[in-house]
Amino acid sequence: MAFSVSGIPVGRGIAIGRAWVLAPASLDVPRRAIESGQGHAEVERLYAAVRAVDDEFEKMRQDLGSEVAAELRAFLDLQAIVLHDPMLIEATRDRILAEQCNAEWALVQQYEQVAEQFDAIEDAYLRERRADVRQIVERILKAMRHPEGGARIALPQALATESGPHADLPWILVAHDIAPADMLLLKQHSFAGFATDTGSPTSHTAILARSLGLPAVVGLQTLYGLIQQGEPIIIDAEAGVVLGSIDAPIRSIYEVRQAEQAVARSRLTRLKNVAAQTLDGQAVTLFANLDLPSDAAHAMEAGCQGVGLFRSEFLYMNRNDPPSEEEQYEAYRSVVIALKGRPVTIRTLDSGADKDVPSVSANRDPPSNPALALRAIRLCLAEPELFMTQLRAILRASAHGPIKLLIPLISGPQEMVTARKMVMAAMAQLKDRRMAFDGAISIGAMIEVPAAALAIDGLLPVLDFASLGTNDLIQYTLAIDRADGDVAHLYNPLHPAVLRLIADVIKACNRRGKPVSVCGEMAGDPELTRLLLGFGLREFSMHPAQVLLIKQEILRSRAADCSKQSAKILRQGDPAKLTAALAKWNQDRDHISG
Ligand code: PEP
Ligand code: MG
Description:
The protein is of the alpha/beta class. The chain has 25 helices and 16 strands.
């Protein structure tokens, strides 16, 4: 019988497909039957992973040098012994061949057996060695998932060619959790939708999923264990539910709804070349947010007027070394060229929190509180060479078209002044090299730290423009980790504290004649368009997939009315009442537009 699991919607629409259940980075791996004759290939995958872990240990030994404490060497030696224990590796090989199953599954089964034996040992010290075995198993599993070292997910080749009882259906990704770096890899595969047990709507994983314009639901908590590999499922991102064990009548109901949505979407495309303007003639600029240079094509298709946020940090993920100046220059230049003269706002490296950049994190101890740690501009100022390399690359790309430079996580003017000095220094270096760049490049800041929003008057003199990063502004104002599904219900864009900060920043910027945009997820939410217009916002930056929807909202809004209504809403101090007042206002809009 069909069942449904509720979660938090992060994309729009409906996906009907078969589940590709992704193994998490723990010992909870699915069993996969292998074709006859493939057993030796699986064994070879196992051996290759063992060799990779061996190499990792060797590198660690070398990095530790000769002065290292004897205990550390002994630890590495012990792990190497465990790695080659025939009870683990040879027995796993036998299992693969006997049970005709994937290497990951066989390894975990073998580990469970060995662990049981350890549990029965009386000597406490020896019993604790079970943890060493587990660590080794996790390392091997990781190496199997990332055969090239940097990548954290390796999708089976079978994904493209897999046949089976529901081969007519596209794949839907089901996972316990997906890290942003993994999501980046998944962007290159065509899934019809995503569903994860963990996560919240403004985690970077969700943002990447949304940027694909696909239906997705996160925070499902229990879905992962309920869905079988290849099973037909439905993602309803309007209702925030995933349906499993679906039968033919349910499938046809959703097929009809899916077709209706496709018609509505294609109607929206008629707005592509219509200027975004309110009913009372206020022009609004709609920019796109990009995660990768390849997203530039989507931005152009959606008819956006430029790029309001290019998240450059994704260029640094899934690799062990940072991208070189040349590589970055090519990436930025390709976006500038694709945008054909429209402005491109490139945000400098915004590493940290849920965005792991291995070339940075590998050299540092894990912070006790990643969201508050040495990340983004703080890290760039602490690692000048890393920052200067990026600045030179951006400046060089500015010779090919209009670029604006955006600095993340600014908390006060001093950081901005230092960042500006470094831009000047990068310009001087390029001059010495006789390389072209835009000497009058605009330099702005993300306003996403409450301190920057509250003290915006002190910051504006050193900014050419401001961009409100509402995702982080909400996180830091409400003390809610935006990537933590357990507190996702407390993450509230409509908290009066958040709205007052946003309204005040927009007002201050407009008063001083400094361009201001919103590039957080709020800008792409049609339920918030009139509110933001009412605050005086005239630049919105969002995923290309949202641009036409937001344009539709603008076309049917009257700025003067929005301003009056927003002022009323802003006076409401109770979050629940404020939410209700906005919902009522939006209901009127739905009613008016039919
Ligand atoms: C934000 O914080 O709102 C933002 C746009 O940046 P990111 O989501 O990458 O932190
Ligand atoms: Mg941010």
